Structures are given as C-alpha cells and as structure tokens.
Amino acid sequence: MDLTYPPEAEKFRLEVRAWLEENLPKGWGAPGFAMTPDERRSFENEWTKKLSEGGWICASWPKEYGGRGLSLMESVVLNEEFARANAPMRADFFGDTLVGPTILQWGTEEQKKFFLPKILSGEISWCQGFSEPDAGSDLASLATRAELDGDEWVINGQKVWTTQAQYADYIFLLARTDPEAPKHAGISYLLVPMRQPGIEVRPIAQIDGSAEFNEVFFSNARCPKDNVVGGVNNGWKVAMTTLGFERGTSATTGHRRFERELKAIIEAARRNGKAADPIIRQRLAHAWSKVKIMEINGLRTLTSALNGDLSTVGLGATNKMYWSEYHRDVMELYLDIMGMEGQILTGDGSEETESAPGVGARRGRPGYPVSPMQASFFFSRSETIWGGTAQIQRNIVAERVLGLPKEPKPAS
C-alpha cells in the first residue's frame, strides 16, 4: 500500500481546495456556523449551479460527454477535498454515481447522447429497481418480466425498497426477458420512464417518519425497445457493474461519516459523565479502532484499483459487511450512553430534520420528532440489509475468497 500521491494529484488537490475556499459560505465548517432553513435552501440551489460552472459534477466522465476526464487519483483527491471541507456534492447519487457510469461503460452512442447530458444538467432524476419481495439478497431470482411488443418493452412485476422512487423521472431496473434461460441469464437492464400509466409508487413509512423507500408496481408499463443497456439478456453483467460503482467510489472517504458521528458520540459521553465508565470507554476505544481499520481498508481498495487488480469482490464484500455492522453496533452504544434520555424524542418535528452526523438531512414527521442521532440509529438498522445483507457478504467471502463449499440449498 503506497500512501504517496503523485505530484499531479497533489497539484489538483490545491486547485480543488482553493475553489472550495472561494465558493463556500464564509465561516463554513467553523464552530457555531449555522444557517436558517431559508438560507439553507438558497445555498443548495446556488451550490448546484456553482458545481456545474466549476465542472465538478461528474468530473471523472470523459470530456466528450461533459466531464473533465479526471484520472482515478484526481477523482480520489476531489472526493477527499469535498469530504475534508464537509462540502456537499450534488445529491443525485443514482444518476451521477450509478446509472451514468453504467451507461458510459455499456450504453450505445445514442443512449449516451440522450441520457448523459440530462443526468449532468439534473433534468432527469433516477431510482434503482433491483430488489423484489422475493428477490433481495438472491437478486437473480427476480420475477419482474419484460416482453417485447413491437418497438416497446411491456413490463409487469413489483420492486421494493426503491429509494426516492416517488421523485424519480426514470428507473433503471432489472427484468426477466427470457424466462426459459438459467436464472442469472435471461435478465435485461432497462431504462424506464416513471411518469406513465401502469406505474404505481407506494412510499414505505419508517418508524422515524421518513419514507425514502417505496414499493413500485408495474402493470403493462412501457419503455422503448432501444432502452436496453448492454444488450438483451446481458443484464446481470451490467448490474454487477452498477453495484461495483455503488461500492467503490468512496474508498478513501467512506470512513469519514463514521468518524464525524463517533466524535459526536464521544462528546455526548463526556457531557453526561459516561466517559468515566470503564466499559463505555473500552467500547468507545474499540469503535475508534474500527473506524481506523475502515480508513486503512479504503486505502487497500484504492491500491488494488491502481494496480489493476480487478479481483476485489472479496474485499468489497468484507468492507460492506464490516462498516454496516459497525454502524449498527455503535448506534446501540450511543443509546447505552444516553440511557433513558435516549428514549425521549428530542427532535424539532420539522419536515427536514437537522443533518445527522454523517447521514444528512432526514424527512421526518411532526408526530414523531426524532433527533439527528435517533434518526441515524433507525437508519443504521437498514444498512446491514441493503446492498447485500451481511449474511450474503459472508457467503461471498467464504465461497469466492476462501474457496469453501457452496452453501447447501434448502430442501424442496
């Protein structure tokens, strides 16, 4: 693991840092800095425009498709500097980070010319349609079907846990286009307009009042024949590319949200005297060591990518399992530190709560006013599930890294 960044990357770091210092609000990140709700909304609207003018949105994309053609190390430095300043990147995670790069790698020239400019401009917002009620961890068991009818695909089925579906213009989804093929074959990756007859979105309310997740029902919904990415019946390979983007874009910055949150937990323990409890102190020290291990594993992942090592599936599975279980455990530690006080709803009940350390703003409800840390606790319960459950990650490590026998199939 070589921790020395090349000179050109460090030169680029200075460029990014200078731009952030010039464009962030005065006092940003300083103790006591705060914005009113109106100031926050004004900042967010203006910030997206500034990011676009600065060329920071999708900056790693090739120049011919609107990016800056950044190298891998320049992209890493860009993420590091924005994370260091706690400056927001544009929030369209699904478009910028997942489907956009997937179209760049697998899409036709016509798909690139149509979709990529609209992703860059924010004209199209996206959601991801992979999981189904009976096909979550075993994604290849999906049952949603797409049948060709002239120049259109006709889609029937259901997706679940579809984040931001109620706001999206398009969904990139997996559908079975050849029911006779083996389960990992016969699947296609489709780009489907959301605002059409035949698509129903039902938000799933969480206990804290947020509702980012949704059920999505398709009843003879349609999309153009040419909206298949990567070729008909090749969707599994394309989807694995998308999941790779989801898990690999924050190698050296992914630990930072946990670092900020742990700092807030330690401060809470100091305030109420629990920091003097030897068991709590030991658990806090253990949590700190785990955050440092995440930082080191991120550098290992980056080193593998720089060396052209594409066999990182075991490392990705291990990292996902590690951080998600850490976050679940450290939020339980937070509640232990707070004691009965942690059971009192101390949020302000506004529609958009204060940003939880490392998680961001959460839409709550007035009748259940959770605090930012309580919102983070509830959110942490989902993290060992989405993106591949911890149990599935263990199977991947066991079978693909350690060479152990495959898990026995249940008796039929």
What does this structure look like?
This protein is α+β, with helices and mostly antiparallel strands. It has three domains: 84 residues, Acyl-CoA dehydrogenase/oxidase, N-terminal domain (Butyryl-Coa Dehydrogenase, subunit A, domain 1, Orthogonal Bundle), CATH 1.10.540.10; 129 residues, Butyryl-CoA Dehydrogenase, subunit A, domain 2, CATH 2.40.110; 152 residues, Butyryl-CoA Dehydrogenase, subunit A, domain 3, CATH 1.20.140. Helices cover 45% and strands 11% of the residues. The chain has a four-stranded antiparallel beta sheet, with no helix packed on it. The N and C termini lie far apart (47 Å).
- Give the strand content: 5-15%
Which segments are poorly predicted (pLDDT under 50) over 5 or more consecutive residues?
A: none
Summarize the biggest pleated sheet. 4 strands, antiparallel
> What is the CATH H-level superfamily of the largest domain?
Butyryl-CoA Dehydrogenase, subunit A, domain 3
- CATH class category of the largest domain: Mainly Alpha
**What is the strand tally?**
7
Overall pLDDT score: 86
Q: How many H/I helical runs?
A: 11
CATH topology of the largest domain: Butyryl-CoA Dehydrogenase, subunit A, domain 3
Q: What proportion of the residues is helical, as a percent range?
A: 40-55%
Number of structural domains: 3
Approximate shape: globular
* Strand line-up across the major sheet: 2-3-7-6
**Class by helix and strand content?**
alpha+beta
Going by CATH, the architecture of the largest domain would be Up-down Bundle
Rg value? 22 Å
